[in-house]
Design goal:
4 helices, elongated, 157 residues, mainly alpha
Amino acid sequence: MDNNGFIKERKQPLLTGAGILAVAAGLVLLYFGFFMLMDSNNSISPDLTVQQHKILKYLAIGGVYLMVNGGFSVVCGFYGAVNSGLVDNHRKCSIYGWVLLAFSVVNVLIMTLITDVAGNQFNIILLLVPILIAVMYCLGAFLNQRMIQERLKENES
């Protein structure tokens, strides 16, 4: 405790690092989602078949999903990096971590259905990086919560 009786703020480095990585990954997802959305809209022409229109529609939906996923990653990454160590925000960081993990799992499922993951090791790495960031974020939020509880117990004594 400091001289005024307040708990000193000590950041959780894993949550801060995972937050920064989530922001970077979210910005990349926003860029590629916007690119997919614009590419699907620019490719529409009257001489396309019904099947090609369906594919372009799915590309547009995928672009919107990537943009939502990227936007959420940026928000929760920023929130985790800035608010790690604060007593009031540990529950929200945990919830953000679990939602980020759910987005990552859905992203893996969609990508495995769309692309041939087994043939390309680069795709496997691209699928595992968001899950790794989300797991780091969840672990950092859990460690942050434990650190805060230990600090509160120390201050009660």
